[in-house]
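Quick one: structure tokens for this chain, please?
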Amino acid sequence: MYLKSITLIGFKSFAEKTTMEFTPGVIAIVGPNGCGKSNVSDAIRWVLGEQSARALRGGEMADVIFNGTESGRKPLSLAEVSLTFADCREVLPTGQIAGMETNFDEVTVTRRIFRDGRSDYFINKTPCRLRDVQSLFMDTGIGRSSYSIMEQGKIDKILSSHPEDRRSVFEEAAGITRYKSQKREALRKLEYTEANMTRLTDTIREVKRQIVSLQRQASKARRYQALAAEARHLDTQVARRRYEEIQAACAEVQRALNEARGDLAKGRDAIALGEREVAALRGSAEEAEARRQAVLQKRRDLQTQIERCEERMRSTKERLGEARSGIETAERESGEARERLAEARAHEAGLRQRLNLLHAERERRQREAAASREELEAALALERERDSLIQRRQDEALQAEGDLINWRNQETVLERQRQESALAAQKLAAERTAAAEQERSLQQRLEALQAEVAAFQRTFESSRHALSGGEDALREADQNCVALAAEFAETQAVLSERRSRREVLRQLHDTYEGYSEGARALLGGHFAEVDAEVRRAILGTLADLIEVEPRYAVAIEAGLGAALQAIVLADANAALRLVDALQRRSLGRATFAIKEEEEGLGGMPFQARARPDGALCWAADAVQCAPLAHALVRNLLADTAIVPDVRAALDLHRRDAGLTLVTVEGDVLDHHGILSAGSVKSLPLQVLGRRNEIVALDAEIAAREARFRDLSARKGDWEGRRAAARQAVGDRQTEIRARATDLSGKQALLASLRGEARDAGSKIAAIDLASREMEQRRAEISAEQDRGRAAVLAAQERQG
């Protein structure tokens, strides 16, 4: 295995995308100080998982992102480094991480960081965790702190460190670091599992302790149910007798009530007369009270006005005192001000007198100075005039001679300048021709580059549109994944709750909870002395042999009552033997039902007569049962009808007192006229409802399991879409960043060409201006030569 290449984008000084290719063997990176050699080693350490910014020579991790330059280069928003390793199929377990059977021959590890602090890791462009990167290079000697990266001073540090510190280096070289890491992870999981086992053991111990208590409570509850049923029956009989006694007392009270009503009518007339008199007196009292309240109100208003006047008087007196004090203060201040004004006026008069004297003295001295200056200027002017006349005569002589020499020298200079101007004009013409050619070349390159930049911009915009579409798809996938995850969790929770509920109900059903102790002992098969023939005679409980529509389950359970837990037997001998076994073991009582032969029925239905008015149906019509229980159910539900409510039961009982009526809520009115009504929860058994609920839960659980599987498949599909969209967005972003970098380079080149074109145009304009100035200068030289010749002739004439 060897390092094949490293690619840096926006990492420290590498603003542009930079790729360094390596070959097997020794590779050295050389260059002057500050060119970025150390940044390459920092990039390798960083992509391998370095988390310390100080180790990368920075204050925070965002410092590794290119931060711009003073020349106007803008900072970047991310940094990315990729390491590519080749010939690593036998060294790096990439297949194990990717879930494949074979490893990759070439592996690219990428790390990307944004300015907001978010950092991503990739293995072959697949998102992964830092832990996956560390696990990939474990035992290979490659890592942020392994011996593969030896910075300055590290060898001395290893040699001078303790043996315990050097041990990690030897373990890494020996290839056991991975196994030690796996050992630590396994030990951590074992500790976590042991903690869970301890908690589970405590929970089981607590539940077992509670089971014993709950069993005692269940036994007490069953005894309470039996005693409560007997107490209700006795209460019903007592209530019936009390009802008859109360009916007789009510008749006597009714007679007394009629007599009292007559007396009450007479009393009401007397009370009405008294109330009218009281009303008249109340009206007079209210008028007097109103007059008294008016007088009191007027008295309060007068008192308020008096208080306000007194308050204004006090306020006026206080303001008058304050005004007097202010007047006295003002008078004192006025006297002081008058004294200060008199002093100021006297001082002002003295100052004015002194100022007048100073003005007179200044004017006198100014007149004397003016007379002296006039005399001095007249003398100096006369002297200057004589000197200037003498000097002018001397200068004229010298000037004439110097002008002659100067004009001759100037003519020579002007001739040389004219020749140089001609040469310069030729040179400017050649330079203008070259500059024009350069401008045409730059213009052609500029047009070609502008077309290329425009094409790049169109491609860049199309990539940005594609990225926007990919981001929309990623957002849609994220939203669907979140929604499906929530629905998946909700469905899983409801499914778990329904399964738990079904399991509890099945345990209650399998353990015959709610049955008598004897019935549970027989049905549970706890009697070893009962032979196989007797066991075969047990056909099951009546509740197991019938099926009821869910809407009538409560009514049928109330109508059958304790008969639901009856054990149906094939013959009477089996019943005798089972009763004998219960008595010997002293395990309570059980209810038995002997299967009856349906002779002469001829397949006739349970009820042969029409449904009574006001009834929903006959109770037997709501029951479906096995053939062996037909006669038993017919006898138990004979003359039993199901009605909507207690009111309908009472109405039907008055018309046909021989029926037993059961409401859909479980209220029972038997043919003796005894009504048993109340909450469904007060019924001693809920066997049919429990079994119907188990059936309903089975159907619901099957539907929810199908929904769960569908959600799981959809969730996996959307997660795959999300991963693909995220990968596409990442690839598109990388492509856009690369295109943006290329576009920035071409735009910089375009700006440079435009600058050069402007410089060329400016140069041509400067050459044209210099040419015009040169022509103007040549004309001026010719004119000066003419004037010089004329001056030389004039000077020669004066000397001659």
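The first helix runs from residue 37 to 47.
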